[in-house]
Amino acid sequence: MGSKRVIIYCRESRDENGEYIDRIETQRDILLNFCKKNGLTNIIDIVMDDNVSGTSFERLNEIVEKIKSKTVDILVFKDASR
User: Fold this and answer.
1) Bridge-partner residues for 9, per DSSP?
2) What pTM does this model have?
3) From residue 57, how far is each of 3, 27, 40 by CA, in Å?
4) Which end of the chain lies in a sparser environment, N or C, as judged by fewer CB atoms within 10 Å?
């Protein structure tokens, strides 16, 4: 599994009051640890979306293009809610 090309995606999370739920660096560290534990060692990119609207999906276009062009095999992210 180590040869699979991996992108890690992190996004700053906030609650209803605008308070940070999960610091973006904490997400990155959690996901890096997950990859290490699961033998996903070929991390080609870490995308850190900070202060980007959750309704603006254009931010994902670059990742989608990498997946379509088969330059990435696995996308790892912490939470797909919201």
Assistant:
1) 47, 77
2) 0.78
3) 29, 20, 26
4) C
Between vectors from CA 35 to CA 29 and to CA 39, what angle results, nearest 5°? 150
Nearest of 77, 53, 75 to residue 64 by alpha carbon: 75
Phi, psi of 20 (to 5 degrees): -75, 125
CA-nearest of 33, 55, 54, 42 to 7 is: 42
> Exposed/middle/buried for 18, CB within 10 Å: 0-12, 13-18, 19+?
exposed
Token pair for 58: 């254009």
Residue type, 45: D
Distance CA 57, CA 60 (A): 6
Residue 15: phi, psi to the nearest 5?
-85, -175
User: pLDDT of 4-47, one tens digit each?
Assistant: 999 999 987 665 665 655 688 889 999 999 999 999 999 999 99
